[in-house]
Structures are given as C-alpha cells and as structure tokens.
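A further point concerns the way the authors explain their paired sequence and structure data. The central task, working out the structure tokens from the amino acid sequence alone, is never made concrete. I therefore recommend that a typical entry be quoted early in the introduction. An entry of this sort, consisting of the sequence and the corresponding backbone structure tokens, reads as follows:
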Amino acid sequence: MKYSKTLSLDCPYCDTKTQFVSDMSKVSFCTNENRFHDLFKCTNCDGLIISRWNKNSGNIVDGDLRTFHSHAQNSSILEKYYPIVGDFIQQIDSTKITDDNVKKDYKEAVNCYNNGFYNASMVMARRAIHQEVDYREVDGTNLYKKIESLGISDNLKKLLNKVKNFGNSGAHPDFFLFDEKGEQLIQEENEKEFAKLSLIFLDKYFQDQYEVEDLIEQAPKSKQEVEDL
C-alpha cells in the first residue's frame, strides 16, 4: 500500500475495515530503521496506530520530514502498522545512560508497558536498577543494601526501593502491596498503575543521575574548579 493521508485498513481496536486519517504533525524519522513513521487515527473508534514507511523515492531525503510530506504520496510503501497500547513517554535521553545493559533493560521495561505487558515491565524495571547498582560497583548482599549504599539522596533511594517492590509484585504472586490505610491492593486491578509508577520513578532517577550530571559537566567552571580537574 502506498502512502496517503487516508488509509483503508483493518483496525486492530474495533476489528473493522475502516478509514484511518493521518496526523501530519506526528510524522517522524527513525535513524535505526531508516524509515519514516506516521500516526493515524481510526475514523470508527478513534484508535491510534503507528505506521512505518520506506522512502522509496529519490526525492525523499533521509530524516527530512518536509521532503517526506512533499513526495511520499503514491511513492512510499507501507511496511507495518501497529496499535499504540501504552501511554508512557520517557523523559530521560537514554543515550546518556552510560551502561548498555542498564539502557537495554530500561528500554525493554518501557516497551513491555507500552505493549500491555505490565508485570513484565515491572520485572524489567527492577532488573534495570539491579544492573545499575552492579555497574556502580556498590557493596551489599542484596538489592536493598546495594541501593542503600549508593551515594544518592534518600528520596532517590526511596524511588529505587519502590521500583524494587513493584518488580517483586510483578514477579511473585504472593508479594502484595498496600495503600496508605494499610489495605491490601489487588494486583490484577492495579498492575497497569504499578507498572507506570515504576517507570516514572526509574525515569526520575535516571534524569537526576545522568542529565543533571551532564548539565553540570557542560556548564562554565570557576578558576578553582578548573584547577581541581
């Protein structure tokens, strides 16, 4: 199928053959795939899908969204489309996360959440912090003690311990979480909220550890700071 602002597709949400309309402002280019992506909305149920297109035209320059808008019509070919299930958008620039293992696990946690696998997301978020504390080579016989050994604020330690608890909840059916009144929360009714909180807390930690540090490193330095380098 060739690119158009309106497409006739089988909707993965309402299971009907219907028209999808492009949100032209949401076209993006993925350098890893060397493909363009566009957001479409179902005119029957308002379900959103992401579509992936090859450029298939010498007039469309890689990464140039203006040339895609101008020349994709009747030239670019649809390769794949899939529903948007989740609503989590990370704030951390993951390229700033130093360790590849941490980065990979965090990305998998986000992908699990956005595809509706909430328990798996919590487990992968917990795995990401385990990779993080091992990368920082802190002492401790278990994950809690390793988190407590990190040279970070008490609030950040609390965030990571919450992520650890969510991960335990996702991995173990006999691990329960409770509300502020001490009432046991039913896992099946809360797993999406738990998973999202897990990712939000982990994202806050990464922002503090990597983006703030990067901002400080790039800022102009005093004479004393230069001499101390």
